[in-house]
Amino acid sequence: MTVSLQSPGRINKLQLKNRLVLAPMQQHKGTPAGHATDYHVEHYGRRAADVGLVIIESTAVSQDGRLYQDDIGIYSDSHIKPLGKVVKAVHTRDARVFIQLSHGGRKSHLLPGERLLSSSPIAFSDEYGLPFEAKNEQLEQLIGRYREAALRSREAGFDGIELHAAHGYLLHQFLSPISNLRTDSYGGSPNRRLQFVLQVAIAVREAVGPDYPVQIRVSASDYDPGGLIPLHIADIVKRLEPLLDAVHVSSGGITPLRPLDVYPGYQIPYAAVLKSETTLPVIAVGGIHQRALAERVVAEQLADFVAIGRPMLDEPDFAGQLLGKQPLSARSGS
Ligand SMILES: Cc1cc2nc3c(=O)[nH]c(=O)nc-3n(C[C@H](O)[C@H](O)[C@H](O)COP(=O)(O)O)c2cc1C
């Protein structure tokens, strides 16, 4: 049977009405205390009509892990109610909604008195401060933060969780040999560099139970000769597979190095590696903005879902164009 963008999909036991996903995109509209507002309710509600799944932006599991100070968070019970309104707005449009749980590690933006933490004391770039190497006790606290965030996410009504382990943020900082130079049980070999992410995934899974969708977003390439390549990421995801329900495949962010060639769908080959190396449903993303290309991704089973980012910001009905419900624009038809 040929799969099309219109085909229903499934992550864990959750049925999705089609194969389109709204990619997580920070809106920089959180309150100083990290709360979602009416802006988020309206923003996500408007973009939910034609996608099967909305993944809301990077949402911090602790205040000092916010990527930017205007990010939203889920590090206190007071965040649950405003996020619940976002969930309701998406459900009203007959879409499902995941929250992306994140911690920025060495790429966080801090308030006075907070300290940057990472796997090892290496700064991301000259513009970021030097982080300290998190001690085991602090890692245990962080795992607890993820656990609490997962419980709050479920209480707010989210249909699932995406763990942000991409783009050079804390979980990625543990996975990559570029940022993790530890010699204890959390570093020194691929297996040990995986331990922190593994423990986070175990804690989240234990908190939400086996039937609740939990997926991971990964960077399949570090774009650096000393960094991770797609097959390394496939090995990592294979180890995590019993704990996960899907994988969302992005790239980059562990250093300021960018890919040399960014063309429409340039990350699809990475998604295809994860598709062939694991049994998990795969979400492809990155410049997949033309209807023909998006259809090819699912028809040829290079991935199971296609996430769309930037076009959905200025054209909230862009997903409808890819589904053929709206006339194609220069962008979706070219
Ligand atoms: C304004 C903006 C904010 C973003 N915020 C996030 C985020 O919070 N979490 C994340 O994993 N990726 C984030 N991304 C990356 C997108 O999810 C997506 O991977 C990227 O835009 C490529 O897809 P596109 O070519 O369809 O835009 C952001 C991208 C943009 C443009």
CATH topology group: TIM Barrel
Biggest β-sheet description: 8 strands, parallel, barrel
Top-tier CATH class: Alpha Beta
* Helix count from the secondary structure assignment: 11
* Low-confidence region ranges: none
What CATH architecture label applies? Alpha-Beta Barrel
Distance between the termini: 27 Å
| Alpha-carbon Rg, integer | 19 Å
Order of helices and strands: EEEHEEHEEEHEHHEHEHEHEHHH
Bound molecules: flavin mononucleotide
Largest sheet, spatial ordering of strands: 3-4-6-9-10-11-12-13
Mean pLDDT: 97
Number of domains: 1
* Helix percentage range: 25-40%
For CATH, the homologous superfamily is named as Aldolase class I
Computed structural class: alpha/beta
Structure characterization notes:
The chain is α/β, with parallel strands linked by helices. The chain has a single domain, classed as TIM Barrel (Alpha-Beta Barrel). Helix content is 33%, strand content 16%. The strands form three sheets. An eight-stranded parallel β-barrel has the order 3-4-6-9-10-11-12-13, surrounded by six helices. Strands 1-2 form a two-stranded antiparallel sheet. β3, α1 and β4 form a beta-alpha-beta unit. The chain is globular and about 55 Å long. The chain starts with 8 loop residues before the first strand and ends with a helix. The mean pLDDT is 97. The structure holds flavin mononucleotide.
